[in-house]
Amino acid sequence: MSSLLNAIKSSSIVHLCFAISYFTSGLMINLMQCILFLCIKPFNKRLFRTLLYYLCYSFHCQLVAIGEWWSGSKLKIYISKEDLEKAGTEHALLIMNHTYETDWLFGWMFCEKVGVLGNCKAYAKKVISYIPTIGWSWKFAEFVFLERSFDKDREIITKQLNEIFDYPDPAWLLLNAEGTRFTQSKHAASVKFAQERGMPVLKHHLIPRTKGFTASLPVLKKKCPAIMDVQLVFKEDDKVKPTIINLLRGKCITGHIYLRRVSMSEVPDDEEQAAQWLHDLYVRKDKLQASFHETGDFFKGNDIKPIEPITIPRRLSSVTNWIAWMIFAMLPILYLLFSMIVSGNIYYILSGVFVLVSFHLLYSYAIGMSKISKASNYGSKTVEKKD
User: Fold this and answer.
1) H/E element holding 261?
2) Is residue 357 packed enough to be buried (19+ CB in 10 Å), middle (13-18) or exposed (0-12)?
3) What pLDDT band is residue 52 in, cutting at 50, 70 and 90?
């Protein structure tokens, strides 16, 4: 029985069904978002954002369900009782490391547990907003899309942060201050950058980019009461690596996440001092990660009060939503494709085969890019210039 289940979880056909369902549901959600944007937002912005929360939750938690229910992945959470009680009850800026292929998903898993997944936002590249489903969804959800021109981005940041923190319910905004995912080549460039400027060398992070953070502070100081310092780590000796393909194959991954609430009032008002505060934060984050990799514990060797990890049970809402979308999105498509293939009409047959092959090629491309990204993260030795 277990071998049959493993065969099903490893099946590319099953994974293809997941991809078709997610893409189809994403387009449906985009359509509903567009209707709300045109018909509700001009007259009642509060109602628009409340309804948008549920649409974004419905889209994002499909991936959370794959992580928690399909693969059975677990998240060990290191957070004080006081900080856990406040998590999900107020606006917050999340400052998180970006080291792994799936760190964002395990971050979403925590957000789902504290009830803010539908209101999770992020700073992102503008090009992402043109991608169907995920990019369009984020565009309607008022993510902070940046153009990589600081003069323009400063205006965008001010405008979008005022919009985000005007939400009726708590919104969490993710800032990856490193600017990109950690790779060996980017780390080598970061080390060189730090050494040339007499800055502390980080072992497990890239030097944070401070302009976006300091440009955000005028709005954050007024409307956002807290920063969540987030550090997500996977054990280096785990047999199952934290990759998308391992999740799709139903392999259990265990993540370790440390969270600490920092009052926004602790961040200096002065721009240079605020930039230094961010650098100091990353030195602390680097010590946490170094301790974990060396000892299996965030706190050994650090002057940080130890916290016992907790686990929060997975919720039925995520898997119920996922199954509902699988049924709603897949059954009509499978019926249509089956009807076309068995119709006897050569044009219908070729059209059905073309659709299947197209989805398969898209799925194979996504998995291939995932593997390339993984290889770059763990094996690249080429030093890149720091932009």
Assistant:
1) strand 254-263
2) exposed
3) very high
Tokens of 369: 């890019």
Q: What is the pLDDT of residue 354?
A: 72
CA distance 369 to 372: 5
Whole-number Å distance between alpha carbons of 219 and 158: 7
| Residue 76, Cβ density class (10 Å: 0-12 exposed, 13-18 middle, ≥19 buried) | middle
Give the β-pairing of 254-263 and 226-233: antiparallel
Question: What six digits make up the tokens of 123?
Answer: 């700073």
Distances (CA, A) of 145 to 16, 102, 138: 30, 21, 9
Token pair of 295 as six digits: 């000892």
Tell me which residue of 281, 290, 248 sits closest to 102, measured CA to CA: 248
DSSP string, 238-259: -SS-S-HHHHHTT---EEEEEE
**What residues form DSSP beta bridges with 174?**
94, 122
CA dist., res. 82 & res. 80, Å (int): 5
Residue tagged 């993540």 (tokens): 255
For residue 343, the 8-state DSSP code is: S
Label residues 79-116 b or e (16+ Cβ within 10 Å = b). beeebeebbbeebbbbbbbbbbbbbbbbbbbbbbbbbb
Question: How many other CB atoms are found less than 10 A from the CB of residue 331?
Answer: 10
Q: What is the pLDDT of residues 292-330, one digit of tens each?
A: 999 999 998 788 889 999 999 999 999 999 999 999 888
In the β-sheet with 172-175, what is the strand arrangement from edge to edge? 74-78, 254-263, 226-233, 92-96, 172-175, 120-125, 144-146
The C-alpha atoms of residue 303 and residue 295 are separated, in whole angstroms, by: 15
The continuous run of DSSP H or E covering 287 comes out as: helix 271-295
